[in-house]
DNA sequence: TATGAATGAGCGTTCATTCAT
DNA sequence: GATGAATGAACGCTCATTCAT
């Protein structure tokens, strides 16, 4: 069950450390970072309270590892070599949104931690995660700006549309359930269509 | 500063109780429910730690009051008598989205608590708040289903579109800043256009 | 109900002060001095928390008033002009024990406070109450020593017998219930007989 | 000092847990259950406030352990194989009273907690302790009823006499001091004689 | 006289973390 | 590597008491 969580940790970590991270993800997602005790985490991995400190120097470091590896995994997912024609902005946007959304749906538990629990990080670690996070709007901006430039997309406010598309992908971690009607890929395709519609319609009547 | 928060509390509460709720909103939004101490709340209102308990029986009740009054305020905001022509689904959808988004932007601090901190409630209170929350998708569903039925909107998957529109309005509490480029109303109009475009475009190629 | 408690307070106290003392007696007896809050006391008299301080300067003073008036009442009860023949030590002992026991049974709620809650007093007040308490063994000692001297009683160890008789009268506050089989007077007569038997039998085989 | 307290805890408890129980006994006896703080208990054992919770889940459980082990110890003390001739009710009563009294005198500090602080227990624990407590009057009733039946004792009201004998043994925890004139065994022998005299004298004149 | 609001001190308990084993 | 015991620093909450009204 919930094998998706374990996929996020690399082979560089000891199995026990990976089990602790997986337990922590489940705890943080369910009760939040401050609402989770170190006993919850180690207990969820079948270990004693002190065991956590054999593998991580502090609770905050556990969150940081989750955030770092989670964000890298998401970035890698959207940066996979694409199948779309580079000269087809709509196809590229569709692929990008589908991947972004599918990753968040598949990893909705870990993603909830990555999106909502960063306040538990030290400011140094926030900075480090923020550097990765900046890449996501960048990817969307590139594709959309391309399409607008080529005249394929409506001349939208790129920043606003990027925010909207990101919101669709992120907010689903709040409500997505794997036993619901949509698989991660189905939801990805649906949101991909919505994204394209956002840059295809006639511009709205003087928004702003 | 942050006078929007105080707007949420009715005249039935003593001024000190309102000040405590406002302080609690700021604390919960910044550090989460479990990350906030009762001393934070009372201190934020310029009171001693024990003062909180003169006005509220427990920290959880403070959260509940915020959630209850916050949700009611949001519902009242979208249920205001409309200016849109009842026979114009697009106009009605635009108005509904604009109001929903503008409320969340204007009250982004309190809204963050209403959207992300409900895990701190007792299960009884969760049930009570959930009853109010169910009204929001209902409002969107009614308008969109109407438009689809009348043939004005594309025959979209209503449930999915409702989720997407709600996500746009909700996720903005994560990133909206009042000193950013958009006023609550501007953002509302922009998202209203996006919502209309979601139900107006040609249906995507076999999504799902 | 429990009108016996009200009998203990003199006319010198305002009715509200008497009601507070009665409430305090019930609370202290049920939950102990430290286990009782000032809110319990004032609430039990139908008053607000602050009302207690209109009539008493502190919670400890309430206990002190109870202890002082309670002990004086008990002493007055055994010091009532006697009906027994002064030359009949057995009759005098019987009367003394009967009165002591009956008072403790009738006032078992207040007596529980007087016997078990004195640790809540300041040391000054302990001294003051101890002065009254010394009178009780004194009364018993006088009668028993008299009987022994006159050769009417067995030559018992007076101090030990006094302790035993006091114990009988005091310990009943732990278990006496007014709806039990014995009225205060019946119990008094029974214990009076026991006391007489203690000083009448053949001395035990080398006790001590 | 006060090595008698430590005798009450079995070998099944860790030494630190036993030290905490001993400290708690001293605190509860001196200041009552509600008057004792958990810091008093752990501090009395030379430990930090949090240490108590390594060994006991709550302050109430500490009281319960004391009450359970104390009552069992007292019951075991009177249930020791007897030296008295089974056909000699007076001898058996003497032995029973002597043991009951000596236990309470020797363990007067713990006994004070067992006799006066049970109000601090949860109702479940009260029930559990009450089941043990019922055995004590049962033991006395058996012997006295036996003597009355055999015609060796005066035909007394057995229930009343049992109450009186128990009161002698219990009330001494209120006043007994080990540096007083009587050793626990001396006091036991004296009270044994008193008990026998209670069932040996001529019945009092119409008590009740 | 009576009270609602307020508070400093403290209570039972929890928690992240340490350390000897 | 793993743990049971221990702890300093809180935390949510309560309490005796005060005071303006």
From TrEMBL, chains A, B, C, D:
DNA-binding region residues: the ranges are 37-56
| Pfam families, alphabetized | TetR_C_24 (PF17932), TetR_N (PF00440)
Keywords for this entry? DNA-binding
Q: Which InterPro entries match?
A: DNA-bd_HTH_TetR-type_CS (IPR023772), Homeodomain-like_sf (IPR009057), HTH-type_TetR-like_transc_reg (IPR050109), HTH_TetR (IPR001647), KstR2_TetR_C (IPR041490), Tet_transcr_reg_TetR-rel_C_sf (IPR036271)
List the protein's name: AcrR family transcriptional regulator
Domain HTH tetR-type, chain residue ranges per copy: 14-74
The record's SUPFAM superfamilies line, in alphabetical order, gives: Homeodomain-like, Tetracyclin repressor-like, C-terminal domain
Taxonomy, superkingdom: Bacteria
């Amino acid at each position: 069950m919930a094998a998706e969580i374990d996929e996020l940790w690399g082979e560089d970590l000891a199995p026990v450390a990976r089990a602790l991270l997986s337990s922590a993800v489940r705890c943080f997602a369910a009760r939040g970072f401050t609402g989770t005790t170190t006993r919850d985490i180690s207990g969820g991995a079948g270990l004693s309270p002190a065991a956590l400190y054999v593998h991580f120097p502090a609770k905050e470091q556990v969150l940081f590892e989750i955030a770092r590896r989670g964000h890298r995994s998401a970035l890698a997912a959207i940066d996979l070599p694409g199948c779309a024609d580079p000269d087809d902005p709509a196809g590229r946007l569709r692929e990008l949104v589908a991947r972004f959304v599918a990753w968040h749906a598949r990893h909705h538990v870990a993603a909830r931690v990555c999106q909502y629990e960063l306040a538990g990080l030290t400011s140094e670690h926030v900075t480090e995660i923020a550097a990765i996070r900046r890449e996501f709007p960048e990817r969307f901006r590139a594709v959309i700006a391309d399409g607008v430039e080529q005249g394929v997309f409506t001349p939208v406010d790129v920043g606003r549309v990027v925010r909207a598309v990101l919101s669709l992908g992120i907010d689903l971690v709040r409500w997505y359930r794997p036993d619901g009607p949509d698989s991660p890929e189905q939801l990805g395709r649906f949101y991909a269509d919505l994204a394209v519609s956002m840059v295809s319609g006639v511009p709205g009547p003087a928004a702003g």
